[in-house]
Specification:
17% of the residues lie in helices and 27% in strands. It is of the alpha+beta class. The strands form 2 sheets. It has a 5-stranded antiparallel β-sheet with strand order 1-2-3-6-7. It has a two-stranded antiparallel sheet with strand order 4-5. One of its GO terms (molecular function) is hydrolase activity.
Length: 150
């Protein structure tokens, strides 16, 4: 199994489809995504378990940890891609069994926050609306270059 490589940009274009607000905190082992339909009605959260964000001169890098959590507006939740997490254990490009245990433990901690209704699963930002005057950010040259020091 080769490490998945995703081309980060084929060409500049405008985002289409569902609306999303993404919260990525420094040092966090996950990001939280608020999904909205085309009319900006809140549809639920998506939790992406990942390495803490690494900032560099042209942007940020993360390593996806395969395991995700889908969360409905009523805070019912389900795990996604448990099989991907398991099949990558002890592959040299991914994680050890101990690291996979830490990823699963992070998921358990987050599901506790979901069930308790703790931020960000407390309803904040479910009515988010972007300022209509906001324009897409200009990306610096080489923004999608992989950091060599992984």
């Amino acid at each position: 199994m080769e490490r998945d490589r995703t081309v980060s940009m084929l060409w500049p274009r405008h985002w289409e489809g569902r609306h999303v607000l993404i919260r990525t905190e420094p040092e966090a082992d996950h990001s939280v995504w608020w999904f909205f339909d085309l009319e900006m009605r809140f549809e639920g959260w998506y939790v992406n378990l990942e390495s803490p964000v690494r900032r560099w001169s042209a942007g940020i890098d993360i390593l996806d940890h395969a395991l995700d959590i889908l969360v409905a507006p009523d805070r019912s939740w389900s795990l996604k891609d448990e099989d991907e997490l398991a099949e990558r254990v002890d592959h040299p490009a991914y994680w050890t069994a101990a690291e996979a245990d830490r990823i699963r433990a992070a998921g358990e901690r987050i599901t506790g926050d979901i069930e308790a209704g703790r931020f960000p699963f407390d309803g904040q930002y479910t009515d988010f609306r972007p300022d209509p005057s906001w324009k897409p950010a200009d990306l610096p040259p080489y923004w999608d270059t992989e950091v060599a020091s992984r």
